Amino acid sequence: MKKLMLGNEAIARGLYEAGVTLVSSYPGTPSTEITEFAAKYDEIYCEWAPNEKVATEVAFGASLRGARSACAMKHVGLNVAADPLFTLSYTGVNGGMVIFVADDPAMHSSQNEQDSRHYAIAAKVPMLEPADSAEAKDFVKAAFAISEEFDTPVIIRMCTRIAHSQGAVELCDREEHALPAYEKNPQKYIMAPANAIRRHPFVEERTRKLSAYGETSPLNRVEYGGTEKGIICSGTCYQYVKEVFGDSVSVLKLGLVNPLPVEIIRDFASKVDTLYVIEELDGIIEAHLNALKIPCIGKEMFTPIGEYNQTTIREAFGLPQPESVSADTPVPVRPPVMCAGCPHRGLFYTLSKHKITCLGDIGCYTLGSAAPLFALDSTLCMGASVSGLHGFNKAGGKDSESKTVCVIGDSTFMHSGVTGLINIAYNASNSTVIILDNSITGMTGHQQNPTTGYNIKGDPALAVNLEALCKSIGIERVRVVDPYDLKQCEEAILEELSVDAPSVIISRRPCMLLKYVKAKPPVKVNEDKCVGCKQCMKLGCPAISMKNKKAHIDFTQCVGCDVCTQLCKLGAIEKGER
Amino acid sequence: METKNVMIVGVGGQGSLLASKLLGKLLTQEGYDVKVSEVHGMSQRGGSVVTYVRFGDRVYSPVISKGEADFIVSFEKIEAARYADTLKKDGKIIVNSQMIDPMPVITGAAQYPEGVLDELKAKGVFVDELDALSLAVEAGNPKSVNIVLMGRLAKYFDIPYDKWAEAIKVSVKPQFVDVNLKAFDLGYNY
Questions:
Q1: B146 shares contact with chain A (CB less than 8 Å)
Q2: The domain at B4-188 falls in which architecture?
Q3: CB of A241 within 8 A of CB of A317?
Q4: At A578, is the pLDDT very low, low, confident or very high (cuts 50, 70, 90)?
């Protein structure tokens, strides 16, 4: 049976068919749906871990016990999981283990566009890269076979266009893998120097064997189409090449992208007049060819920045582009914005009003950096707001401490903000940390986390009590505010900035997109009272615009949060009625 | 058959994802090789979002590039113009006349270019404009704009009305089937 499946859904299907019994992940676009779809199979235990390092170690534990296990993350998540990854390469696996990493060229939803292939090379583990949903599923099964045959964790590299594209997938049955009896093997799994020294030669030998495997594996294949042009590519680039050239060029499609084969490449190169390497982001295949002294054209013709498509390929080869028309009038940009009724807005308005310096973090609230709020001063990586604030205040002294805060979401705080807070308490800075608790992992599309009280299946789970957690760390001043109440926000922020003690303000209100949050009737503008002063426009609410010099509320967007009504001194914005 | 390309554009939160899923499912049932490229995550809310649906005998790329789209279905007036250069020379734009101010317009940094579709028409672009929001309200739910527009798109396809209706029935939650069938009909017969 064939089914149209998202790349990530196809991965989940592959996990099911491969007899996997455990998946632990932290959400991150574009990898999130792998675990969400896997959780729909009762045969697979799935969970959201607090971060990618934990997730990878949980998967390691399951592998050690003999089960087939997996974890999934976005490219920057692998930075967090890099610590276990590098030594997992030495221990190898007991049950097969696969790590899914989703790169985001063009940064549709990311803070950088790092190329995860570097990790496979650096950690000396095999990496597979599928080119569509059907391959995504097949490669999962191949990856588990490789993992167990070569005693190694395997990385499968996805990218946005594979992860978030649907294509036809042939469904097969699940193959169960019985859990073996556990056998202790300290020489293999205790990576103290005496043992690790013996494992490193194993890793080098494994890479040699994998390289030989790649020479004959069906994961790498050649499609001959004449001798004039030969193109080496993998993943989504293969699709763009085929779309533009069809069968008129020869293509070496690599499915195993680490370690790269040698003989197939030499052979392919010898059969074509000009050899091209087309790869998004870094010139990794090209560097391999350079090391082999095989002449090729790569990054001199193709940028290391962003995504490719048919236009990019045609342009590089000087091929004619299809005709197109465009408007001369410029169309204003439409960046994503915080939703109407977003609980973060009231808090950001308060920070903006008092010109408070604010170190930001990773989440929907990064949007608070945009016009008209301009509420943020930095965004680096998960958790960096809390630790960064401490450094900022240590460097800036009392003056900084009295007018600087940081904001971090509930899920991001659980991920890696709590360690920064421990540092604030231990190394004593009078820092003011604001936890934006919207009771969900918002930006990636509503995943549960350790503070929400539910697990990935939506079943009740233990909830971390943020107030008790912060107090137990040693923060004595912990208070909760409702971000819909501007007066309460203002009082709390100004007071906590003024005191000589570290403090945590929990700005608590659930994301208004959550199903259980009921919208109130939309507010409306009394045009007789509105003088068009634009005070309400300072909120940057997408439901508020100016029409005929009066404020106008879009009833399809407004959820009646009443934040704008608190700003209107003339009382021109009135509560709606059902 | 040469690959056909449908580009669906709109504002994050308007329901373009459901429209592309519906279309993908229907075209697969019709026996085509189909690829649908989507945009995910709450972080796209309020932003410009793009979805690609491609179908034919053998589809390679998941994305539609400049000058390749047979149809642009736009959920908002100026979003159609933003991506007009993706349209084929004789392609068609189906556009909801609803105007949603982007943030630069809200903050006063830019003007909403109301006449931009007329400009495209003057350049010979086929533009089929309809007030999908009013039709969706008439159908019983302003959120059914996506299905109104699918109804309009269906006019230009050879697939029988009943098959679209069947695809809607299996794509939306049971309690929304009637509203969406009405929305589809209002778009189709507009």
A1: no
A2: 3-Layer(aba) Sandwich (3.40)
A3: no
A4: low
